[in-house]
Design goal:
By secondary structure, this protein is an alpha+beta fold. It is 17% helix and 52% strand.
Length: 196
């Protein structure tokens, strides 16, 4: 008994440490906890109000916030986002504001995939409505392969696909493109013609 009981206790402790060492995530799956704005449930950590900011290779600023972000610790470079809001500076120094209901951010490749209720607004006066978009934050490239509607200063444009290239220098629309142009009122046309 003097040998068996201490040996059993030591073997039990050693067994616990070996199991924890071989599968450290197993303990987290049974530990739902909340600490301020951080929730741990299983292998997922959920954060409230996360923020990411930085600069592209050509020194243009970007910033991304969300209402909540969930990260699986087994895939640390992926963030599932809710209530996404991103701001990206374009090459002409205009700002593009992007909002979406949900998204997935790949921090390794700096790619943001947005889904549902996406709105893109430019400080130059353009506004786009999309149902999905992939944003390459590093290069200022945006691609949507689903129907888009763009409201411009003098009309509307609808297309089945939109691509923003070279940080906003080129915007390409393809597939069933239809454009409605709104003419300026005659008073404005005459006023602009009178200017030197």
């Amino acid at each position: 008994m003097r040998i068996a009981v201490p040996l059993g206790v030591l073997l039990g402790i050693a067994f616990f440490f070996v199991i924890s060492w071989l599968n450290p995530l197993r303990l987290l799956t049974r530990l739902p906890a909340r600490a301020g704005n951080l929730v741990v449930s299983g292998t997922k950590i959920t954060m409230e109000q996360p923020k990411l900011a930085g600069f592209t290779r050509d020194a243009r600023s970007y910033e991304m916030t969300a209402q909540a972000a969930a990260q699986d610790i087994t895939r640390p470079d992926k963030l599932e986002l809710k209530g996404v809001h991103a701001k990206i500076e374009m090459q002409d120094h205009t700002m593009v504001d992007i909002t979406a209901a949900t998204g997935l951010y790949d921090s390794k490749n700096e790619m943001l995939t947005l889904n549902r209720d996406i709105m893109i607004k430019s400080t130059s006066g353009y506004q786009g409505l999309l149902s999905e978009a992939v944003v390459d934050i590093r290069n200022g490239h945006i691609l949507s392969e689903k129907p888009v509607t763009v409201n411009m200063l003098n009309g509307d444009l609808k297309a089945n696909q939109m691509e923003v290239l070279d940080a906003g220098d080129v915007v390409r629309f393809t597939g069933g493109v239809a454009m409605t142009v709104t003419a300026s009122p005659p008073d404005e046309v005459e006023a602009s013609a009178d200017k030197p």
